[in-house]
Amino acid sequence: MLSTSGWRVSWGRPLVFVVVTTWQERLRDAVVRSGQKHSLIALDAGVAPETLSRLLNDPNQRPSLETITRIAHAVNENVGWLLGERGFTLSARQLAELRSTVDFLRTALLDAPPPRVVVQSNPNAIRVRRRVPREFAGASLCFQITDDSMTGAAIADGDLLFVERTRDLRAAAGRVVVAEVAGLLYVKQLEIRGDAPRLVSRNDRYAPVELRANELALIGVVVGRAGAPVEE
Known about the structure:
Blueprint: E1 7-10, E2 16-19, H1 23-34, H2 38-45, H3 49-57, H4 65-74, H5 79-82, H6 92-110, E3 118-119, E4 125-127, E5 141-145, E6 160-165, H7 169-172, E7 176-181, E8 184-193, E9 196-200, E10 206-207, E11 209-210, E12 216-226
Parallel strand pairs: 3-10
Antiparallel strand pairs: 1-2, 4-5, 5-6, 6-12, 7-8, 7-12, 8-9, 9-11
């Protein structure tokens, strides 16, 4: 039995829904979209041109499945869509356009280059002289961060950081630390992978600083912070 209901979507812009209610309307639609002359379609399908004309225009036609299949192949259409079978919502052209759209999205989104990442080549901490508040017991040093690379740890550009001295890398792993690399000061989260330390920012725009064990001199761990001081 041939289905008498269905729908077709035009993939142009704006998106248009075209109701296609019968197999005959689907056949006419497929023939028009093929851009071929009726005589050539009939020749390719192995039917008489008069037969194709009747199938396109006579509502009382009841063609065999073999005839419909040959005509569908002649216009590069899938038989399931032409007959409105379940699971064949899209025509062959719509499927091709859908694959093209998926390929475009994969190229534009999945294969796109990652966002620009800043390599932390400059120091982002300076030593300052400030009295350490009593609540940060154990801290004896004060530093000021000079960029936004640690905003994910609630440390903003210009904040004062109160630091407790330690040289123990393992004990400081996972914590925000102040460390010296090649004579430059950094405020970062310390990670240890095997024997190699790395200084990790808490802002996705900044790449981690990969190091060898002997390249990093740990100064201490951050135990408190205060907002940037007001300029006098």
